[in-house]
Structure to design on (45 residues):
């Protein structure tokens, strides 16, 4: 996936959010609660 040149976020942060989204979907599919983003990542978002 090519980084969006107009994005205000760092590519590493966007990659981490994509990973969190995949994990969130997988956990929900297994019947678990979705993870909650906290700390510095939540502040950056």
């Amino acid at each position: 996936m090519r980084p969006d040149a107009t994005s205000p976020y760092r590519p590493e942060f966007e990659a981490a959010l994509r990973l969190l989204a995949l994990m969130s979907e997988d956990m929900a599919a297994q019947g678990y609660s979705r993870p909650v983003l906290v700390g510095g990542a939540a502040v950056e978002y």
User: Anything to note?
Assistant: The mean pLDDT is 83.
